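RECORD TYPE: protein structure
NAME: Aminotransferase
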Amino acid sequence: MREDFNQIVKKIAVSDIRQFDNEVSQVPGMVKLTLGEPDFNTPEHVKQAAIKAIEDNQSHYTPNPGIPALREAAAAYYNEKFNWHYQAENVITTVGATEGIATALQAIINPDDVVIIPTPIFPIYIPDTLLNHGQVVFIDTSADGFVLTPERLEATIKAQGDKIVKAVVLNYPNNPTGVTYNHNELAGLAKVIEKYQLWVVSDEVYAELSYSEPHESLANFIPDQVIVVQGLSKSHAMTGWRVGFLLAPKAVTEEMIKSHQYMVTAPVTLVQYAALEAMTNGKEDSQVMAKQYIERRDYLIKSLEPLGFEMARPDGAFYLFAKIPANCPQDSWTFVRELAKTQKLALIPGISFGAGGEGYVRISYAASMENLHKAVERLTAFVQAH
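PREDICTED:
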């Protein structure tokens, strides 16, 4: 068999987050706080809309960017939520936020273009950039409270010399830290981004799970330079439905439709009708979950701080990025493997999210309170044993 495969594909790997989750899933009695998977079920009215779509024989191709009614509803939904100003022509319905990220980066990157990625961050943006022959430049934000500052961004841009800096990726509220950006922080970044005419791939899939303040977006400041990535996986507990959205200026939307078309043709038709129901009659669905996430977050912070864990500013999403207590192994892989082996509790090592993540663990509180109580008991035993 020939083995001269695509060299970029050979150099990337299956996510170590997924690999570790698969590994610990085989252990009976394991409590997993690993994946970003809401433990809620999809709202009943959304499920019924999908059933009706099947009964109505909605099983044919749709336009590549999605059925017109859904594009209109998505624009209206997010405009109302976040004070944006998009029209249906600015929206592409994608196969989850994951496909949306790949589509956006493919549409804007030329070979050797630089994409700036602040870390710690969910690693998906890195292989997507490399697969499009772009170059990744990282900024470790751990010294700045896990927030990208305008000063660090501008210094990094200048350090690239003659290279073409094409885009910066932002994810907020952030996975893994739960940190998000406030008005002043976004305003400062917008000035630098506008000055250097960068694209922003702005992954805001956790936007409806912002807790301390209402969610703001760079699309409120520099909409002509922002590609917003959105989706229903987190807001409506629809991870398995695989439905997301890209919202962007018309010129880039027209280019992204090409990438999107040749990747997936269009999202699953019946799923689009379920999404239409979520967009039109499920505007408050996320708030039911958000209230419980806040209770879970507060319980974990109150329980873990006495054990010596220090948390980043957890303003959104459903993760705590916790600094490992000084008496425990500081290598995050060693920590999570020992914890899983001795206490049957699985967390994700901070190093999986890039520079600045070592010495931390990500704890997902998208889990029942019963499992969170078990997790605290097992973490307490583990820390006390050290």
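COMMENT: The longest strand covers residues 165-171.
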